[in-house]
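Input record, target 12 of the design panel.
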């Protein structure tokens, strides 16, 4: 942990592969646990709990989450982890399974404690350089951009893909190659009373799993998506992580409740804008942050960002800025920031 406080803002990387194993269709899910742990060791985190269904495997980590699909991996880590160190080993493991990397997307917000970040996360420039050096050469179509806001929080995006993926994305005009769009929500300065729900009582006699389950219920996180199977974990003395699995769709919540650097994140994929907006409202009510950012990534031409301001306005949040950009393979990214009227 940094001397100053825990860095809640996560780094997130999504790797897409082509060439599934036609015999089992399990692709990357065949990666054994020992190999996965070795990759996570390089990142400096560990698995605290795991669950899977017929579509994917989901892992709650000591620092955030990992999702493994047959041809896609999403890994999100916070604190002072070295997330990008996972990229090359994951690509190498995939090659042994007959899979080729065809797309990479790296996103993160602005760190609260940037000076505490180790290599290669000391700056966005360094992260991009590291990715360029460690990604296979077939990912020749690249773009890196920092999307600005009116506050100190920015959204950093890097994407890279091969020519085949680029043509496919242009033809289908569908992001994520499955019709879903991704939403990443970051919240800071959480309501102090609500943040207390993510602290454990001294010597509570509970396990991380049982205390996590209780937090999921007490805070209302269980009602964000009632169809999701939730795998939750409460850290000691405070902090919370959960992964939700709903068919082929994941969701994830991470909370750093300490006053002075409180932070919570919510991420999920959606097919419908209505469902997204309904869940966004529930999430904002759980944390009542003073500052909120909502990043949507979807096919170019789909305007899933619309309606966000209208959805959070009745909850006392006012739109501060909106930045839009397009990225090869990923599609349109819209980064919107909001602040609470009370501040
Ligand atoms: C891993 S969780 C959630 C991470 C998430 N990205 C976030 O900040 O919202 C981080 C919270 O758990 C607390 N925590 C307690 N023990 C921890 C541990 N062994 N590893 C990581 N975090 C721990 C941290 O102080 C922090 O409040």
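The sequence produced for target 12 reads:
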């Amino acid at each position: 942990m940094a001397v100053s406080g825990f860095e809640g803002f996560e780094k997130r990387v999504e790797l897409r592969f082509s060439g599934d194993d036609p015999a089992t269709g399990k692709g990357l899910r065949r990666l054994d646990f020992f190999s996965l742990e070795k990759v996570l060791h390089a990142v400096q985190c560990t698995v605290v709990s795991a669950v899977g269904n017929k579509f994917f495997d989901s892992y709650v980590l000591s620092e955030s989450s990992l999702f493994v699909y047959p041809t896609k991996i999403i890994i999100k880590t916070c604190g002072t982890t070295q997330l990008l160190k996972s990229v090359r080993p994951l690509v190498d493991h995939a090659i042994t399974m007959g899979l080729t990397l065809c797309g990479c997307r790296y996103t993160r917000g602005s760190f609260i404690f940037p000076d505490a970040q180790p290599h290669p996360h000391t700056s966005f420039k360094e992260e991009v350089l590291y990715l360029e050096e460690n990604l296979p050469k077939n990912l020749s179509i690249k773009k890196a951009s920092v999307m600005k806001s009116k506050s100190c929080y920015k959204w950093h995006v890097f994407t890279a893909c091969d020519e085949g993926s680029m043509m496919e994305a242009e033809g289908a005009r569908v992001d994520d190659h499955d019709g879903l769009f991704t939403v990443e929500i970051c919240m800071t300065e959480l309501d102090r009373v609500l943040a207390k729900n993510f602290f454990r009582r001294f010597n509570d006699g509970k396990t991380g799993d049982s205390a996590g389950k209780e937090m999921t219920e007490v805070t209302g996180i269980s009602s964000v998506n009632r169809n999701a199977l939730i795998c939750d974990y409460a850290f000691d003395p405070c902090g919370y992580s959960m992964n939700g699995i709903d068919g082929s769709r994941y969701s994830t919540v991470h909370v750093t409740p300490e006053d002075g650097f409180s932070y919570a994140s919510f991420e999920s994929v959606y097919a419908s804008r209505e469902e997204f907006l309904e869940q966004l409202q529930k999430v904002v009510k759980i944390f009542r942050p003073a500052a909120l950012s909502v990043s949507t990534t979807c096919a170019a031409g789909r305007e899933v960002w619309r309606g966000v301001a209208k959805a959070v306005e009745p909850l006392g949040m006012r739109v501060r800025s909106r930045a839009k950009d397009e990225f090869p393979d990923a599609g349109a990214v819209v980064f919107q920031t909001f602040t609470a009227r009370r501040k």
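The mean pLDDT is 94.
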